[in-house]
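subagent[fold] <- orchestrator: predict structure for attached chain, return tokens only, no commentary.
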Amino acid sequence: MYDELTKQDIAKMQAELDERKRLMPELIEEVKRTRAFGDLSENFEYKEAKRVKNRNGSRIRYLENMIKSAHIIDSDSAEDEVGLYDKVEIYIPEDDETQMIQVVTTIRTDPLKGLISRESPFGKAILGKKAGDSFTVFVNENYSYEAVIKSITKCEDDGSAPILQY
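subagent[fold] -> orchestrator:
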């Protein structure tokens, strides 16, 4: 696992990791408490407590591996170029549509909210471009489309985009 993440991404993951580790003793205790309810084959409370504890443990391992293997990147870019967290107004002639997007790190994506991964075909195509530039997005070997950058608003990571859950 090797992800390029910002210091803010690492800080958000570390905060979640700390909270999940703090919760683990309570979850273990809940498993013990519900186990005492009797027949485990029909004990929904026990099964649910175990599921919650295991899911928390899985997320802890995931966050620890992400933090350990992350490569820290800088979100700075030239004043007139698209960089991480900049808000960009895009025109797509094929659809005759204008969209507002923001290029973010892989663990903060949410395409429905306009948060596009820097690793996606669109993210790779737009980073480093300037207002007025046309560019081609290669989705796969059979499909690509053109887009034009209408404007760039320089922004920084305000921390509002959450870390992806799985």
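orchestrator: received. Logging for downstream: The two ends are 16 Å apart (CA to CA). The first strand starts at residue 4 and ends at 5.
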